[in-house]
Design goal:
Blueprint: E1 9-13, H1 18-29, E2 33-38, H2 41-53, E3 63-67, H3 73-82, E4 88-91, H4 106-134, E5 137-142, H5 155-171, E6 181-188, H6 194-207, H7 211-220, H8 230-240, E7 252-255
Parallel strand pairs: 1-2, 1-4, 2-3, 4-5, 5-6, 6-7
């Protein structure tokens, strides 16, 4: 299916690996020009090279990259110095560390809010009016399945991402909805990424089990009996960015292999 977004420009954050890279790859394969951002210059450069070398990438789709911390004012300025206007924005930042809420001070909470709530809001504020003026825009926020089913050791993430979810729910239903701009959240469950291993390592330390044992137990709790892949996550993201998804806005799209047990 032609998603109708070839030639559009996309900003994809946290795109040096994992889910962010999966989203960038899916968009590039649709003919979208991408500007990918991440902090680690070496890994980001390798990711850009991988996207450029992708045989499924149309020759017309360009790939640019900026090594910057998108959660800082300086990092966002570096990105917008390269390009100001984007048709698609995929917000993504590494989740806060797991732990016990009793151990988190104010600084830990502010850092979590900066990365997982305030930065996406700043990116939305900087781009949606231009999208509206052009009559097309897609914002996809990579949040977490913990927004719907909170995980006890991920309290920082639970709080910050839920705050972003509430903000997006209001903005998505503003005048932007009639101007061709959609805002949706994409909620990953257990995907085979470095982030998953960090979380599982925290659980292993807490329970005294091995990492392999914890990973296997988590896998068995997923109805699909496997972890998701960044490639299939990216495909969902690309659809949310498509012309065909223009009537979807303010939604929380859960991709978790059937783990969430609720009806709604």
């Amino acid at each position: 299916m032609d998603l109708g977004i070839a030639g559009k420009w996309a900003l994809v954050c946290g795109a040096s690996k994992g889910l962010g890279l999966g989203c960038a790859q899916a968009l590039v394969r649709e003919g979208v020009h991408v500007l990918i951002v991440a902090r680690g210059a070496e890994v980001l450069h390798a990711a850009a090279a991988k996207l450029i070398a992708d045989n499924a990438r149309p020759a017309s789709a360009s790939v640019q990259f900026v090594s910057a911390d998108i959660t800082t004012v300086e990092g966002r300025a570096a990105v917008f110095a390269v390009r100001k206007d984007f048709d698609i924005v995929v917000t993504n930042a590494g989740g806060p560390p797991p732990g016990d809420f009793r151990d988190w001070d104010r600084d830990a909470w502010i850092k979590a809010l900066d990365a997982n709530m305030l930065t996406p809001i700043e990116l939305i504020k900087a781009t949606v009016d231009g999208m509206a003026a052009r009559g097309f825009g897609r914002v996809v926020n990579i949040t977490s399945s913990a927004v719907k089913a909170p995980i006890d050791i991920l309290g920082l993430s639970n709080g910050a991402r839920s705050g972003l979810t509430g903000f997006v729910a209001g903005v998505a239903r503003s005048k932007l909805a009639s101007q061709g701009v959609t805002l949706n959240n994409l909620l990953p469950g257990a995907f085979d990424t470095d982030r998953l291993r960090v979380t599982m390592s925290g659980a292993a330390q807490k329970t005294g089990q091995s990492l392999d044992a914890v990973m296997d137990a988590r896998r068995k709790k997923i109805p699909a009996r496997r972890f998701g892949t960044p490639e299939e996550f990216g495909a969902i993201c690309a659809f949310l960015c498509s012309m065909q998804a223009g009537y979807m806005t303010g939604q929380n799209v859960l991709a978790d292999g059937g783990t969430y047990p609720g009806t709604y």
